[in-house]
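Submission sheet (multi-component)
Chains listed below:
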Amino acid sequence: MYLYSIAFYLFSIVAVLSALMVVSAKNPVHSVLFLILSFVNASGLFVLLGAEFLAMILVVVYVGAVAVLFLFVVMMLDINFVKLREGFLQYLPFGALLGIVLIIELGILFLTNSFSENALTQFINSPKIDDIENTKLIGKVLYTDYFYLFQISGLILLVAMVGSITLTLRDRGQVKRQNITSQNFIDANNAIEKKKIKLGEGI
Amino acid sequence: MNNFSYLNDLIIPGSIIIAQILAVLMPVLISVAFLVYAERKVLALIQLRRGPNVVGPFGILQSFADALKLLTKENIIPSNSNKLVFLLAPVITMVLSLAGWAVIPFAPNWVIADINVGIMYLFAISSLGVYGIIMAGWASNSQYPFLGALRSAAQMVSYEVSIGFVIITVLLCVGSLNLSKIVMAQQTLWFAIPLLPMFVIFFISALAETNRLPFDLPEDESTLVAGFFTEYSSASFVLFFLGEYASMILMSSMTVILFLGGWLPPFDIFPLNAIPGVIWFTLKVMFILFLFIWVRGTFPRYRYDQLMRLGWKIFLPLSLLWVVLTAGFLIVFDMVPNSL
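Outcome: structure written.
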């Protein structure tokens, strides 16, 4: 149990510190790397809570796919560090406002006892959680109670995908494309033309 | 702090975990050394050469000599590189290729962490592998490594999708994400037989995921010098090298667990089932590793657009089709395992 609490404090401290570094690091690539570190630590916290499926999904989806593309884009950008710092004071009030709103909302949650110990223990001790592993539980809830919402979210993703493809797809004119099936069906008879050439004459 | 004693609550459980980790990692690291030797020897046989034959009997100590040589060299850090990230990248590659072993069951109950979502954990760890490469390519601050890193990022993300679908077909037949249960579900029939096309796709995607030939475009020595580890030398190069081979063995173990029945003997009859499971497991992993090397000695490297075409236009639709087919088959013949 003591190893458990050591792990908890390790994960949470690293998660908070790396989240801080995301916004304060000078180099954007470092920011993304800290974001990844914070994701990984959050998934460690999920594991400690017993939500192992959520933890793994967090790593696979956010760290394994989303953050890779993120890093990809940030690495390719030509970033002027001086220009990046310029807007800092200009955006500071807006960022501070967002932070204050978030803190007030969290405070309201605490004040209304949504996180009270009773609610939490009731949730953990409910028979549903004890009997079934949480992968099955999530599957049951997601595909029965929230079936339509699940389908709609799939459709939204599809629309986003179609949208981004139409935005980037354009006719670039002279692009050489390889038609692999036609290449595979080539044999000596239709690829080579044999000609008999008489001496002293060209074709 | 009631009843807290360092011995019972911290030192004993802690040292048990560390002992377990060492008991798994030491054999893995030693097998990496012999895998490198085996690769050179098999390639030499394919190309009618002798291969390493000087250090030790038949040259089997060659990898240790190489490692010693590399470790005693100077570690050169490029002056314009991002030093911390540059040094962190090989460490991450190495750690990730070793972390996956925590959930691999070598025999019944021979596993450090028998977690419910074992296969998801392996998938997550293998999808993190790309970071070591991207970080190395970016931090080197040089063109060839950067190109290698970009290739690798696109390649690994593409092939992960089809690996995910292949894993889903296996999971449909098992009804659990636990690796031991996946093995036990193959007692009557290894999944390599009913799911043969998926086995092939998984094997080829594993080649791409571990950046092995014919898909080793991130390090492509004929066009990119050495790809993402062009600027690496000495110990950090060794870490990349070890990481690549350890993740090769990890992917082979994953293939064995998903498709070749893990520690189970091929037939449950007397002389075969008397052999301990860990020996069967090792033999199967060695077979898959031999396939890795055989492919390397046989096929030419893919062109990059061909690689992407194979991943997105062939493997993805095919594996998606098999997910639907398998699910339909299981429903129609009422064979859905572990019905809820």
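Remark: The interface with chain A takes residues 4, 9-10, 13-14, 17, 82, 85, 115-117, 120-121, 123-124, 127-128, 130-131, 134-135, 138, 146, 149-150, 153, 156-157, 160, 177, 305, 309, 340 of chain B (CB under 8 Å).
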